[in-house]
């Protein structure tokens, strides 16, 4: 879904700074980032290692808080929320996907997804979530019986089974080969398209940026550029 039809800001970050203090050393991870993310859009966050991508994603997802600046999720000011409110926000509204899949080895694909649907307020059926990543036929397999790309798709099914408003993915294809990475990106794009889930994907790979509605480039903790893709590509059309 393109953000062109709908300009509701799901996230509004204003002048966000993050300083990590470690003893005498201060690391300025974000230096005044202002950004709106719109309902249903697919954005890619691009930038060199250490440019602040994960820090920004973690702040949007309520896993971390900025040192200064404000972040709103719809009408809720995340930067004014306490830990319990942030936990509630993450649980209800955010799906996370990380580079490493973090599946529980002793549970099947379906049971890994059920862990989340059991605590969510209006989840989809775990098999429906696995269907969306085209793994319904593997529901009874354990992680060790699945390839890396399949495990990542289970992790995506787990992330979206609670029907979150936003899906935040930190290097989802970082551990995968090209072909497998494309299958995983297709799954993420399908969820964005079919469920209208506002989606942000961190990558080092500029080729992946061609899939996005908008590409946000970070450099040294600041936004170095925002590019709107007029001709958005499908995952299958990417080559790297
Ligand atoms: N918990 C932390 N404590 C101290 N410094 C941190 C912490 N997390 C991140 N940093 C520092 O903040 C800066 C930005 O890190 P961040 O992980 O956001 O970058 P990134 O763009 O996601 O990098 P990468 O692509 O390597 O994951 C880096 O210099 C990093 O070392």
Automatic annotation (TrEMBL):
The lineage of its organism: Bacteria, Pseudomonadati, Planctomycetota, Planctomycetia, Pirellulales. It comes from the Bacteria. Signal peptide: none annotated. It holds the Pfam family ABC_tran. This is Putative ABC transporter ATP-binding protein. The keyword Nucleotide-binding applies. Keywords: ATP-binding, Nucleotide-binding, Transport. GO terms for molecular function: ATP binding; ATP hydrolysis activity; transmembrane transporter activity. Belongs to the ABC transporter superfamily. Macrolide exporter (TC 3.A.1.122) family.
